[in-house]
Amino acid sequence: MVLLQVLLNGLLLGGIYACIGAGFSLVWGVVNIINILHGSFIVLGGYGAWYAYAHWGVHPFIAMLPIGLLGYAGGWLLQQYVIRHVMAAKVLVTLTLTFGLNLLLNNLMTFGFSADFRKVVLPSQEPITWAALTLPTDRTLSMLAAVAVVLLTHVLMTRTMLGRSIVAVRMDPQAAQLMGVDVPRTFAATFGIGTGLALIAGAILSPIFPISPVAADGYLGKAFIVCVLGGLGSLPGVLAGGVLLGVVESVGSYFLGSSHALTLSYVLLLAFLLLRPQGLMGKKGFE
Question: Which pTM does this prediction carry?
Answer without folding.
Answer: 0.94
